[in-house]
C-alpha cells in the first residue's frame, strides 16, 4: 500500500506536498526488510516498499479480507506505520515524518535515525549545565552545537504534595555525559511518569559506550563516605530524593537548586510528607566546614561536596564536626560491564525484539522514545505530535510495536506529554528548529535531552 505524500502532508497540516514522492507502508505484524540487522531506509526505501507491498498482497490472498492487512499477532498491539521519504540532516543522521493509525485515532510523529557506523556521528547529553535546571531542547541543542535531538527522562516537575518545597527539575534516572557520571537514580517510589513495567527499574538507561555501540543497560550507584567514625554507604548522588534512612551526596554538577526535596516522600510513596529528621554537612577540600538541620541551596563549588542525610543517615552526619576529614567516592556501575560515554534514564518497553509484558494498552498519550537496532549501530529517536489531548496518541504497548516496526530491537519510553520535543537542523538554513507540534503550542523546559552531533 502506498500513499501519495500530498495526502499525508495535508493530514499533517504543516508539510508541503512534493509531487511524485511515495510513502511506503510497514504492515502490521511484519518488520521492515533487514540488511545485516538494520532496518532498510534512505537509499533502500524503494526496495523496502516493493517487498512490503508483496507481503501485503500475500496477506490479502491469505484471506485477511476487506483490503486491509491484519497482524497475525494482533495481540501484541502492533500498528501500521507510514514513513515519509527521509531527508538528510547531516552525514549519518536522517529525519522523516510518519503517521500511525492506532486505537485512539491516527497519531502523527517524527523520527530521527543515526548511523553510528558513520565516524562523524556521535550521541551526547543535552543539558542546561546543571542537573537541577531546565531549558527547552532547542536551546540546549543550539548551545551545544547538536544537529538534532529529543527530550529525555522524566523529571521532578511539581511538588504540589509538599507545600513550600521547590521542584528541582532534576531527572529521575541516571545521567552520564562525555564519560562523566552526573547523577544516579531515585528510588522507584519517588519517580514521575507512568507505572514501570514488571522487572524494570529507575536505574535502566539507554547508553552509548566508547565502542560506539548503543545498548539498554542498568546503572547502579556505588558510593561511600569515609569519616573518623567509619565508612558510610551513600545511597544518593545528585538525586532529588535520598533513600529513607540514607545519605546522599551533592556535587557542583547539581547546580544551585534547593536540596530540601531530598528528605521528602518515601521509597514507595513520592507524595508522603517531608521527613522531620534531616541533616546536612558541607565538606570542602576533604574537611567538614559546617552542618545544618535544614538542607540548603546555592551553587556548590568544585572543591566542595554536600552530604544530606535523613533518619538514620542524619544521625550519622550529626556526629561530624568542623575540621574532621571526610572522603567521598561515587561511581555508576553498569550491569553490562560496558563503561558508557553517554547515558539517560528511560524504562524499557522492547527487549530483543519483543515488547515487555505488562505494558499499558489503554492510556494513549504523546510519547517520546529511543530505540536501538543494527546490533547497536543504529539509534532511533521518536517523538509524537502533541495532540493526545484530542484523543489520539499511543499507548505504551502501541509505542513498543511502533519501535519494533521502524527497526528497533530494544527501546525505552522517555518523558512524554508536554515534554515531547524533537528538533533538527534545517539543511537549507543551518538553523535548528522544532519539528513536532509540542503540546500547548510551545516547548517545555526539560532537564536533559539526547543530542545527535556531526563533525564536519
TrEMBL record:
Sequence intervals crossing the membrane: none
UniProt protein name: Secreted protein
InterPro entries xref list: NAGPA
Domain Phosphodiester glycosidase residue range list: 278-453
Database matches in PANTHER family: N-ACETYLGLUCOSAMINE-1-PHOSPHODIESTER ALPHA-N-ACETYLGLUCOSAMINIDASE
Region spans: Disordered: 437-456
Pfam families, sorted: NAGPA (PF09992)
Domain of life: Bacteria
Amino acid at each position: 500500500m502506498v500513499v501519495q505524500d500530498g495526502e499525508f502532508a495535508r493530514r499533517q497540516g504543516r508539510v508541503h506536498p512534493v509531487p511524485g514522492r511515495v510513502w511506503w507502508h510497514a504492515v502490521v505484524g511484519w518488520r521492515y526488510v533487514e540488511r545485516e540487522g538494520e532496518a532498510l531506509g534512505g537509499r533502500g526505501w524503494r526496495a523496502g516498499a516493493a517487498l512490503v507491498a508483496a507481503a501485503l498482497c500475500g496477506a490479502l490472498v491469505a484471506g485477511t479480507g476487506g483490503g486491509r492487512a491484519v497482524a497475525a499477532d494482533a495481540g501484541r498491539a502492533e500498528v501500521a506505520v507510514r514513513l515519509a521519504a527521509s531527508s538528510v540532516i547531516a552525514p549519518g543522521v536522517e529525519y522523516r515524518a510518519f503517521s500511525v493509525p492506532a486505537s485512539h485515532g491516527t497519531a502523527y510523529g517524527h523520527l530521527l535515525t543515526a548511523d553510528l557506523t558513520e565516524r562523524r556521528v556521535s550521541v551526547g547529553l543535552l543539558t542546561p549545565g546543571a542537573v537541577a535546571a531546565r531549558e527547552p531542547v532547542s536551546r540546549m541543542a543550539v548551545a551545544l552545537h547538536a544537529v538534532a535531538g529529543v527530550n529525555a527522562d522524566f523529571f521532578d516537575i511539581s511538588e504540589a504534595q509538599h507545600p513550600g518545597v521547590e521542584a528541582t527539575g532534576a531527572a529521575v534516572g541516571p545521567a552520564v555525559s562525555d564519560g562523566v557520571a552526573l547523577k544516579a537514580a531515585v528510588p522507584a517510589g519517588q519517580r514521575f511518569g507512568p507505572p514501570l513495567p514488571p522487572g524494570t527499574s529507575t536505574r535502566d538507561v539507554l547508553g552509548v559506550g566508547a565502542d560506539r555501540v548503543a545498548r539498554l543497560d542498568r546503572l547502579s550507584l556505588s558510593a561511600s563516605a569515609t569519616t573518623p567514625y567509619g565508612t558510610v554507604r551513600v545511597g544518593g548522588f545528585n538525586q532529588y530524593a535520598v533513600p529513607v534512612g540514607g545519605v546522599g551526596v551533592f556535587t557542583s554538577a547539581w547546580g544551585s537548586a534547593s536540596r530540601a526535596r531530598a528528605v521528602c516522600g518515601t521509597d514507595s510513596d513520592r507524595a508522603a510528607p517531608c521527613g522531620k529528621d534531616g541533616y546536612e554537612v558541607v565538606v570542602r577540600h576533604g574537611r567538614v566546614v559546617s552542618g545544618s538541620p535544614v538542607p540548603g541551596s546555592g551553587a556548590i563549588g568544585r572543591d566542595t561536596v554536600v552530604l544530606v542525610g535523613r533518619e538514620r543517615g542524619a544521625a550519622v552526619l550529626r556526629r561530624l564536626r568542623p575540621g574532621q576529614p571526610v572522603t567521598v567516592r561515587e561511581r555508576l556501575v553498569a550491569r553490562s560491564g560496558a563503561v558508557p560515554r553517554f547515558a539517560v534514564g528511560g524504562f524499557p518497553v522492547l527487549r530483543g525484539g519483543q515488547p515487555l509484558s505488562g505494558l499499558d494498552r489503554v492510556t494513549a498519550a504523546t510519547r517520546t522514545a529511543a530505540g536501538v537496532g543494527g546490533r547497536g549501530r543504529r539509534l532511533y529517536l521518536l517523538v509524537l505530535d502533541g495532540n493526545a489531548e484530542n484523543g489520539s496518541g499511543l499507548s505504551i504497548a502501541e509505542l513498543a510495536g511502533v519501535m519494533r516496526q521502524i527497526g528497533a530491537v530494544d527501546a525505552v519510553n522517555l518523558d512524554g506529554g508536554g515534554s515531547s520535543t524533537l528538533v533538527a537542523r534545517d539543511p537549507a538554513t543551518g538553523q535548528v528548529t522544532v519539528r513536532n507540534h509540542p503540546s500547548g503550542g510551545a516547548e517545555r523546559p526539560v532537564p536533559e535531552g539526547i543530542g545527535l552531533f556531526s563533525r564536519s
